[in-house]
Amino acid sequence: MSDFQQSSDQLEIRNEKLKELISLGINPFPARFARTDKCSHLHLKYESLPSGEVTEDITGIAGRIISIRNSGMFIDLHDDSGKVQIYTDLKTISDENSQIMTRLDLGDFIGVIGVIRRTPRGELSINLQKLVILSKALSPLPDSYYGLHDTEIRYRQRYIDLISNPKSKDTLVKRSKIISQMRNVLENDGFLEVETPMLHHIAGGAIAKPFVTHHNALDIDLYLRIAPELYLKQLIIGGLSEKVFEINRCFRNEGISTRHNPEFTSIELYQAYADFEDMIEVAEKIIKSVCEKVNGSMEIKFGELEFDFDKPWQRKTMAQFVLEHTGVDFLVIKSDQEARDAAKKLEVKLEGHETWGKVLETVFGEKVEHHLIQPTHVLELPTDISPLSKAKEDDPRLTERFETYINGWEIANGFSELNDPIEQRSRFEQQMKDKESGDDEAHSMDESFLTALTYGMPPTGGLGIGIDRLTMLMTNSHSIREVIAFPTLKPKV
């Protein structure tokens, strides 16, 4: 049996054992157990204990049964730190312990009190003195030898995946360390962690399609956050701190793929008196620090690819990359129609109403993006797709914005923030025109944010990093579902 299956017979047998325990006056779900040690602590404490030696030390440990051998003589007990072997002399076992032992199954949680020893074969073990059932597992686990490979079950019942597959557990533990390290880097640099709303009156802060919900008491529609940007900027305006960040959950009502989940986690930060070039340095610092912390090196492998984050990261403008890969120089193209004609010659599909900047972005996405394997910063994105970015002074078609790509994936996005309220209003008005033309991802008019800008926002740099995709890279995971504990799935009918 290579994948997880359970039969009605297995369920019936386990339920019968549960009834037997209860009939014997044994509570199969007690409230607590006085644990004194964890598995990893015992291995560390007794690492120098010679083979064959029995101590006089008594310990109390608890965990899940992963393996039962020789009718219970040997049990592998796991907690979240590791495993330890339990040894029971079946010839001298007490009646009380035997009543429980004969009714144990894989997956049960037990508590064990016993003496520490190391077997002649070198296995750290506990000679059982007292056995306590802590939670009777009524459903069977997958075969521990083969593990669990059915992705449908792994994602829908993540708890089974975590029990059966050590790599899944390691991936999610590393995710936690990645987030913790990001927080440490920023706090050490003087950033203040903040929280902003997840329910917005206007879907703003990014160009994306939102989820809509309704608040009954207020009788208004609200949008699940697509980005925290506009609230974080208001904190900069208010002077809460010159450096703020938020580790945030965002929601976008768009497609699902190996790199996209409707809800995702990112980190966004804003720094007063900084620009997009400063943000590039911050992005590199965070990613390098995370790599070193999680993998112990600046070098990682992803499938057949190798990355060395210590080497200089490539930097070119979006137009330069497109010219390099297609031979078309969009900077000499003046009109929207001319840009669309150029894209058509490159066999890039358009809807027919795209502006110059949107055409450049589309051509870049189809012809360039997948080539950006090693760490790369793409600079000067078009103003048409960057309504919140400061425009370049020598070419207002472009902005002081960058995107960071690794393995052909966008990992980070940052820019010099637009702090001119008059220009920001003009940008929003253009976005509204785009929305009327059929662009359902265009940015809405946000009067509240425009009002905040009129009180003055200092020159500010902003940065966002996708935590899910970064975790995929750092853990050699090829699907975003591997790095999210509970990914979005279509309900089973």
Structure, briefly:
The chain is α+β, with helices and mostly antiparallel strands. The protein is built from 15 helices and 20 strands. Strands 6-10-11-20-19-18-15-14 form an eight-stranded mixed β-sheet, sandwiched between helices.
Through-space gap between termini? 25 Å
Share of β-strand residues: 25-35%
Helix content: 25-40%
Number of E-type strands: 20
What does this structure look like?
An eight-stranded mixed beta sheet has the order 6-10-11-20-19-18-15-14, sandwiched between helices. Helices cover 33% and strands 26% of the residues. The protein contains 15 helices and 20 strands. It is an alpha+beta fold. The two termini are 25 Å apart. The model has no long low-confidence stretch (mean pLDDT 93).
What's the helix and strand layout?
Layout: H1 8-23, H2 39-45, E1 54-69, E2 74-79, E3 82-87, H3 95-101, E4 109-118, E5 124-135, H4 151-156, H5 158-164, H6 166-188, E6 192-193, E7 199-200, E8 212-215, E9 220-224, H7 229-238, E10 243-251, E11 263-272, H8 276-295, E12 299-302, E13 305-308, E14 314-317, H9 318-326, H10 336-345, H11 356-367, E15 376-379, E16 391-392, E17 395-399, E18 401-406, E19 409-416, H12 421-436, H13 447-453, E20 460-466, H14 467-474, H15 480-483
Parallel strand pairs: 3-5, 6-10, 14-15
Antiparallel strand pairs: 1-2, 1-4, 2-3, 4-5, 7-9, 8-9, 10-11, 11-20, 12-13, 15-18, 16-17, 18-19, 19-20
Helix pairs in contact: 5-6, 6-8, 6-14, 9-11, 10-11
